[in-house]
Amino acid sequence: MRKVYPDATAALAGLLRDDMVIHSGGFGLCGIPDILIDAVRDSGVKGLTVVSNNAGIDDVGLGRLLRTRQIKKMIASYVGENAEFARQFLAGELEIEFNPQGTLAERIRAGGAGIPAFYTKTGVGTAVAEGKPTAEFDGETYVMERGIVADLALVHAWMGDHEGNLVYRRTARNFNPMMATAARMTVAQVEHLVHPGEIDPDHIVTPGIFVKRMIQVPAGYEKRIENRTVRPREAA
């Protein structure tokens, strides 16, 4: 199977439709599949439900899909740093399903593992648990959370080979590996594309069986920094 496509538009051809559920990897701006997100924006699909730790920042990453009103609902754990997100939510223009961060990660992992639901203590007695089944285990109350399987997962990796095996770099790994397993179709953007056999098998995080299509990010690709923090330069 040919997995490497010339660009994001080609890689997403035939996969996008209105009202679909999309996993989008990343944490803030770290490890986000921004080139693939731009191709989703350019396609014009709308009514999307997007599962992501957060919604990027204004006009970067998922913030661009918010700006064009293509997202109907966000399933997320953190939504700071995005004024347009806040504006749409407070105006009743955007649905939001908040999740504790660990719960969100486990819901995605469970979806990839074929687990339809699980119980957790996190959120019991709060608005997070409203309307959800609860059960007692060993005298403690737990709330049931459903696993999430998306129609499409968009992920970013540091390195990948032509067979779709992926390696992530440091904290850019975040939600990407679990999302890659929890969708009916996974498309990856990689910084470094190598030939099969060039990645040490012990270093592979996402096996190629989960990745159906991929692109290499173009030369000059810019990694955005959400908040740059540096120490004052010491006097000579």
UniProtKB/TrEMBL annotation:
SUPFAM superfamilies given in the database record: NagB/RpiA/CoA transferase-like
- Per the record's keyword annotation, is Transferase included, yes or no? yes
EC primary class: transferase
- Keywords, in A-Z order: Transferase
As one GO molecular function, the record gives: succinyl-CoA:3-oxo-acid CoA-transferase activity
* InterPro entries, sorted: 3-oxoacid_CoA-transf_A (IPR012792), CoA_trans_fam_I (IPR004165), NagB/RpiA_transferase-like (IPR037171)
Name the domain of life this protein comes from: Bacteria
Keyword Transport found: no
Q: Which Pfam families match?
A: CoA_trans (PF01144)
**EC number(s) stated in the UniProt entry for this protein:** 2.8.3.5
Q: Which PANTHER family match?
A: ACETATE COA-TRANSFERASE SUBUNIT ALPHA, KETOACID-COENZYME A TRANSFERASE
* Protein name stated in the entry: 3-oxoacid CoA-transferase subunit A
